[in-house]
Specification:
By secondary structure, the chain is mostly helical. The protein has 17 helices and no strands. It has one domain: Growth Hormone, Chain: A (Up-down Bundle). Helix 2 (about 10-40) crosses helix 11, helix 3 packs antiparallel against helix 11 and helix 15 runs antiparallel to helix 16 (about 360-390). The longest helix has about 35 residues, at about 135-165. The radius of gyration is 21 Å and the shape is globular.
Length: about 425
């Protein structure tokens, strides 16, 4: 029990850090929409898609390097220093120019990506160290990590729109202060036993390459990349831009549906409610995930993504018939509930793989950032193109395509596991 309580500072810090991330995403989308409206500059969906691409390109490039350094130098330093770069980014966003702000914001996104590259591998490596030889606790803690992550994003989503309506550019000052408090929380995390690598660097890279080629990991990569791409589609400035932009598409009800007075507040409440429900689903999985075979659960989660797409298409094309909400909203919630199980199951699976490479736990868990970064770059880039061609429906079409690829990858992984006789830690213990 004491060990579980000692993880609280890290979970609180993660919640605050994700809340800031969610708020920045909302505020940047609203900032660009405001600039396009008041300054007379044309801002397209493709340009908005460049913001998360810059962020995740920096993160995925630096995550393996910084994750490897955390294996050699200790994770505590990275836990504390990482959020400070987020503080720098938020402080500099206060001075975003009104004329042609895109280049400036892209540079700020690179700083934010560096902050995340320092923090995420260190946090996940710490959690894996924290739960060595405790399979059920690992499942619960990874689920709680995803819970505070989604809960923080939900809180940030709600606060972002409200802060923009009330404070405008000055909302970045509050975000900078919150990043400082994150560093304080991380400083309070207790030390845990860590296998520190002292070998030569070229031998370390050789071992990294052998880890990546492990069948249990290699076959799983396409599925996680596709799911990460879905996050890039639906949890980025792209969605807020489409919903709040003044451009409307015939027969698509959701296009520009949050435009107008108090649009930021309505957008924040709507998206925040969805993310909050997602967090409650994760709370459920935190206590019941260990009872279900992990691969089976991940397959079910992808099916949930497809159900969500059906519901979103129905909501987008329901016209003035409000009665259809009684069918589409419950289906949407069922799909989100099923889809929410993927991340904690996948993180626990990755932590299990790290047991075979304890010295490189930071690097292995840093693969989370790589998968997330590459996937979200692809998702955001394609989302901008699909949205420009098909509107909101384009996001749905792209989601269905990626979900089908993820499903094929997971089915292949299930077949490989059966060939091994189910001995590969793919089931809960």
């Amino acid at each position: 029990m004491n060990r579980r309580r000692s993880a609280v500072p890290l979970l609180i810090g993660t919640f605050l850090q994700r809340a800031n991330s969610g708020a920045v995403t909302i505020v940047l989308g609203l900032l660009l929409a405001h600039t396009a409206k008041t300054a007379g500059h044309t801002v397209t969906s493709v340009q908005v898609g460049l913001l998360p691409i810059a962020y995740y390109l920096a993160e995925l490039t630096l995550s393996p390097f910084l994750g490897g350094l955390s294996d050699r130098w200790g994770r505590k330093k990275f836990l504390v220093i990482g959020p400070l770069f987020g503080c720098i980014q938020a402080s500099l966003l206060l001075f975003t120019p009104d004329v042609n702000p895109l280049t400036y914001i892209l540079c700020m996104q690179v700083i934010a990506g560096f902050s995340s590259a320092m923090s995420v591998p260190a946090v996940l490596g710490y959690l894996a160290d924290f739960t060595v030889l405790k399979g059920s606790q690992r499942i619960r803690l990874m689920s709680l990590y995803e819970l505070v992550t989604s809960g923080g994003l939900g809180a940030g989503t709600v606060l972002g729109g409200i802060l923009w309506d009330r404070m405008g550019h000055w909302s970045f000052v509050l975000m900078a202060v919150i990043y400082l408090s994150v560093s304080g929380c991380m400083a309070l995390t207790p030390m845990v036993q860590q296998h520190v690598s002292r070998e030569k660097v070229h031998l370390t890279f050789q071992r990294y390459w052998s880890i990546i080629r492990m069948p249990r990991l290699f076959i799983f990569i396409p599925a996680w990349l596709c799911i990460s791409a879905l996050l890039g589609i639906w949890l980025s400035s792209q969605l807020t831009f489409i919903l709040s932009n003044s451009v409307h598409v015939p027969h698509q009800l959701l296009m520009g549906s949050m435009n107008g007075p108090n649009g930021g507040r309505r957008l924040s409440i709507t998206l925040g409610g969805v993310v909050l429900f997602f967090g409650l689903c994760l709370l459920f999985w935190a206590f019941f995930l260990h009872r279900v075979v992990r691969l089976r659960l991940m397959v079910t989660s992808v099916i949930g993504v497809l159900l969500t797409c059906i519901a979103l298409w129905g909501l987008n094309h329901r016209g003035s018939n409000t009665t259809l909400l009684l069918a589409w909203v419950p289906l949407l919630l069922i799909g989100i509930f099923a889809a929410s199980s993927f991340a904690p199951a996948a993180l626990a699976y990755l932590a299990d793989i790290s047991e075979d490479a304890a010295r490189d736990r930071g690097m292995v868990m840093g693969l989370y950032s790589i998968f997330l970064g590459v996937g979200q770059i692809v998702g955001n880039g394609l989302a901008g193109l699909f949205a420009r061609r098909f509107g909101f429906d384009g996001l749905i079409y792209l989601t269905v395509l990626l979900a089908c690829v993820a499903l094929i990858s997971l089915v292949w992984l299930v077949m490989q596991d059966r060939k091994l006789g189910g001995k590969s830690r793919l089931v809960t213990r």
